[in-house]
Amino acid sequence: MAPDRGRTRERPAWLRRLAQGAARYAGRASRPLVDRFRASLQLRVVSSTLIASTILVLIFSFVVAGSVTSGLLDERQDTAVEETENAAERAAEQLGTFSTTSDEALAKAMQRIVNELAEDPVYAPYIMLRTADGAVTATHPTSGGAEPSADLQATVAEGKIATQYAEFDIEGGDPQPYLIVGSYIDLNIDYEIYAFYPLESQQEAIGLLRTNLALAGVALVLLLGVIAALVTRLVVTPVREAARTSQRLAAGLLHERMEVRGSDDLARLAGSFNLMAENLQNQIRRLEEMSMMQRRFTSDVSHELRTPLATIRMAADLLYDNRDEFDPLTKRSTELLQHEIDRFEDLLQELLEISRFDSGFASLETEAVDVGRIAEDVVEGLSRLAGECGVAVTIKKPQRRVIAEVDQRRVHRILRNLVSNAIEHAEGRPVEIRIAESDTAVAVSVRDHGVGLKPGHADRVFDRFWRADPSRNRKTGGTGLGLAISLEDAKLHSGTLKATGAPGEGTLFVLTLPLQAGNRVINSPIPLRLEPSKEARRATQD
């Protein structure tokens, strides 16, 4: 059976593995160079200059070498043609007396003419004289063995002067380049004369020219590379200094400045940078002073309000305990007073907590606790609110306990804020709490299917005193600081608290905390993605 010539032969598996291994090794070996090339502006400029200058030098060298070579060969060809014409005229003067190739004296006369012409330094050192029919041929030297090509002989036979470049070993040894010039002699007997001119001197001149061009090109490329490196260094050095100074400024060293040298453009750049750094330092100092004054004001006001609030609380409690003895209008006013004082106390407590975060005095009291149990306690504590709002709260957690080293009080506060907020905005639809863990973190998600969040509101829900809908009636009378404090509590644990939502699809909050105190959260076991549940779809249909 004949082989299938159209089928492509697959390479062996070991060869493919070897090629893949070589490619991976080459990639790893070249990666430091690629990274260095990308990171260094000076290296890129110098490399680009070297590549461009090398291309230009090569093009220039080829053009110059070609032009000089063509000029030398053309000049030698013109001289050789003129010398060959003179030799043909000289031979014609001595061969005009012969009328037949059978004359015995013709061969001797042709050899004598060839010897005289070859020994004359004006003419070529190797000459061939022959009759047009090839009957008689005389050469000098007789042992050269050089022979013109058939094309050259055909052109000369037409009565034209023709030239050809070829290599022969006339003198023995390595072949050498020659210029062959052929001429036709029209007498009683037709003759052809061929002169072989050596081109050793031209070849040496061309070789010397190419060597000098190569050396000059290499020197020029290196010189351009050095010049590019020096010029680039003058520009890159201030830029690098500015980058280092900006990095130190970003690290908090606001007193760092660039050194100003001279009065050129780079000096003006350094001066402008220093002015910008000074203005930035002054602005940061003013902001720090204002922030410090604000934190101090919040802390002082919060502390100062505790004493009068305690007195008001005592009076309000006395009125509230005896409210049944008052008329209906006074009784209702007493209940409203008690409610607003409770809310005021909550606001005061949250302001004090915010002031602790701002001043950096907040600390953790970690212990190994069951996160699922904390979530159950929160749901149990908010069962009354959930019943008033007609919201069903469910918890989905792993079969085994999820133990994490956290501050139980702060985690309880975070979940209480998230769950109560979800119940308030659930619009009577279910609220789902999910607990999941990974090797390093535990996550708790609180999902409602209520009004949701408008585009851009997910980044603002943790702002202090911010509300998506200020006109919305809340049953718990929130202070606007709950989510802000929850975010600070999550950060204090080195965790994260994120939110997402869409109008009409509800809101999802995901709290992620490390399982061990002191670690940081890298990935959350629960993705921040809205996924409607069957219960929510069923409630919507109903």
UniProtKB/TrEMBL annotation:
Membrane topology note: Multi-pass membrane protein
SMART domains attached to this UniProt entry: HAMP, HATPase_c, HisKA
GO molecular function terms attached to this record: ATP binding; phosphorelay response regulator activity; phosphorelay sensor kinase activity; protein kinase activator activity
UniProt-annotated location(s): Cell membrane
InterPro entries xref list: BphY/WalK/GraS-like, HAMP_dom, HATPase_C_sf, HATPase_dom, His_kinase_dom, HisK_dim/P_dom, HisK_dim/P_sf, MtrAB_MtrB
Assigned EC number: 2.7.13.3
Keywords recorded for this protein, A-Z: ATP-binding, Cell membrane, Kinase, Membrane, Nucleotide-binding, Phosphoprotein, Transferase, Transmembrane, Transmembrane helix, Two-component regulatory system
Main location: membrane
Signal peptide annotation: none
Example GO biological process: osmosensory signaling via phosphorelay pathway
Catalytic activity: ATP + protein L-histidine = ADP + protein N-phospho-L-histidine
Domain of life: Bacteria
Transmembrane segments: 45-68, 213-236
HAMP domain segment(s): 233-285
Assigned GO CC terms: plasma membrane
Record-annotated Histidine kinase domain positions: 300-517
Protein name, per record: Sensor histidine kinase MtrB
Gene that produces this protein: mtrB
